[in-house]
Amino acid sequence: MREILLNPGPVNLSERVRQALLKPDLCHREPEFAAMQQSIRRQLLRIYGLPEQDWAAILITGSGTSAMEAMLTSCIPARGKVLVIENGVYGERLSRIAAIHGMDHACLRHEWGGVIDVGRLERCLSEDPGFTHVAVVHHETTSGRLNRLETIAEVCARFRVNMLVDGVSSFGAEELRFEDWGMHACAATANKCLHGIPGTSFVIVKRAALRRTEDIQRTLYLDLNTYLRQQDQNGTPFTQSVQSFYALDEALREHAEDGGWQTRRTDYWRKMDSVRHGLADLKIEALLPREDSSCVLNAFRLPNNLDYASLHDGLKQRGFVIYAGQGEFAKTLFRISVMGSITMTDMERFLEAVRGLL
Ligand SMILES: Cc1ncc(COP(=O)(O)O)c(C=O)c1O
Q: Which of 60, 205, 255, 303 has its CA 20 to 30 A from that of 132?
């Protein structure tokens, strides 16, 4: 029986993406690899209609965190200062990256799952004119909250501060208005809303933003200027995960043929709405209202009579993998993601399995 993955990536693969993994062995210094790399880079920009002369997709072999680290360390000039907005694990991870690299930064902390307080953001930026960048997570996977980038972007524009976005769990399924929101970069990954396999992540970056950091290199492996120079000339500084590229190239074709991020969002919402309604009927409450939630993942309160381990193990026996709450949420929440090649029938069978367990 195929196990249905309701964790936030890696996701269930479609058959055509799985078959792409079986393509011939390939050296990453051969022209066939270069052609595939350019195809992926072009397709990534096309998802949000970004012109190639102004924007670049830079491909890295590593998980989503490597893209976050590459973005922060490569996009902020030596004299720059970043304000990191935190309302969950991944905002806190951005801060840790800045701290580890000794970057000038400050944290704008919120409780996990809380709404970002734009008034506080404005005060921080007005009190310290040294800030050059704001870093923020789009979909905070800790809680399922979709942070409202448009309001943050509006404040950033007023203070002439550049916005760096962790779009790891939203890229490809939620709206991202790169130009309108004045985004400078967005970190994301192959194995979430794009339905590829783990191993490849990427940063979509404004070329002009990287030109300002050409003179500094904070890391050897994650320096985006090094990648950009070589990828623009059909090369790669390091060995890439070739099979993961095969999968991503095919997954991107499928994404476009299906109708792009808009169709993916509609499809995810259809599945998520069925989960939200089905669980509500069983008196299992969602953490956040629908209008604050992403289409990708929602968090739910554990029922009183069932701990997470029993729920997880019972569902796994029935063929479904769910996801625990992180940190302080571990005892009270579980999370359901609807990414990947799964169907409404899978969701109905999932709800039937939960009903059986209760
Ligand atoms: C918003 C967000 N950022 C970053 C990451 C880290 O990605 P990875 O585990 O692939 O390093 C995740 C993972 O779930 C995420 O949801």
A: 60
